[in-house]
Amino acid sequence: MITVKATYTVKPEFVEENKENISRFLSDFKKLNPSEFRYNVYLQEDGITFLHFSTYKNEETQKQILNIPSFKSFQEQRDKSGLDNTHKVEVLSYVDSSFEVL
């Protein structure tokens, strides 16, 4: 199992467009097998910092998900918006959960 936390801050004028791009790729993700991965996105209190939590059954699933065209488009547009080196990706080690995880 692979769990990743990604955070980044966008400019205030890009927040709504970023939300739309996120909705677009999540709509595509919802068409896939939910037993293979989980993907959640949050907006922090500052209103400009996004947090993505993703869990994948294995590396093959992760590669498949991250290569979906709408997700790649989201990343490209996000990166072009001017992140000012705020993008941070962390791989997390699973300990335990109150619910069944992949």
Please give the alpha-carbon distance between the first and last residues. 7 Å
What is the overall silhouette? globular
For the sheet with most strands, the description reads:
4 strands, antiparallel
Radius of gyration: 14 Å
What fraction strand? 25-35%
Helix content: 25-40%
Describe what is shown at a glance.
By secondary structure, the protein is α+β, with helices and mostly antiparallel strands. The chain has helices at 15-29, 59-66, 69-80; strands spanning 2-9, 37-43, 49-56, 88-92.
Could you explain the architecture of this structure?
Helix 1 runs antiparallel to helix 3. This protein has 3 helices and 4 strands; from the N terminus they run βαββααβ. A 4-stranded antiparallel β-sheet has the order 2-3-1-4. Strand 2 and strand 3 (49-56) form a beta hairpin. The chain is 34% helix and 27% strand. It is an alpha+beta fold and 102 residues long.
How would you describe this structure in keywords?
single chain; 102 residues; alpha+beta; 4-stranded antiparallel β-sheet; 3 helices
What topology does this entry show?
Layout: E1 2-9, H1 15-29, E2 37-43, E3 49-56, H2 59-66, H3 69-80, E4 88-92
